[in-house]
Amino acid sequence: MSVRETLARVDADLAAGRVPVARQRLRGLVSSFPYDLTLRRRLAEVYRLYGDAAEAGRWMYLEEDRDADETAAFEARYRSPGWRMKALAWRGPEAMAATSFAERQLVAVRTACAAHLGHPVDWDEPTSYLEEECEEQPSEPWTVGGVLAGVGCLVGVLAFVAIWVNGVVALFD
What are phi and psi of 2, to 5 degrees? Predict the structure, then answer.
């Protein structure tokens, strides 16, 4: 499926309220086309629908007109330069960036990571920037969707237990 067809499906998903599906399609596109800043921008827009400033900041990190609060939220969630490199999901040389601002951002993250780890790192070699940081994980805040899913699971389990208990009680009546 072409990028254009996938983006048309993203638009249809969003119009139908299927935000998670649209998000997943965009994540796939960004993975396939990491240099396309417009895809990253679209993904940031979807994360704004969730109210997830850190993820919006993640996907807008290479844009000059990014939101300072979203950038700060991204940097707070992905505290180390290695985790930022992983989160940015870039591949190849920084020179492939569509803008000079994006190229400078990528160079800055890679340089900070190399300084932090004490050895050269490479976008195409994740073990070069994560091997010494495996203990540090980005923090994940609670989201409305996550809380609702948890509550839904709890209600389902409680309903099952209530039905089971009523069945057992009925056996002894």
Answer: -75, 165
Task: Name the pTM for this structure.
Answer: 0.73
DSSP state of 122: B
Contact 123, 90 (CB under 8 A): yes
pLDDT value at residue 144: 57
Please provide the size of the chain in residues: 173
Q: In the structure encoding, which two tokens stand for residue 43, read together?
A: 């993904």
CA 9 to chain centre: 20
CA distance 14 to 156: 28
Q: Helices 37-50 and 53-60: crossing angle, nearest 10°?
A: 170
Q: Give CA–CA dist 38/101, Å, rounded.
A: 14
> What is the widest separation between alpha-carbon atoms in the chain?
77
Q: State the Cα–Cα distance between residues 68 and 49, nearest whole angstrom.
A: 18
- State the Cα torsion 108-111-114-119 to the nearest 10°: 160
37-75 pLDDT, tens digit each? 999 999 999 999 989 999 999 999 999 999 999 999 999
- Smallest CA-to-CA distance from 73 within 87, 91, 93 is with 87
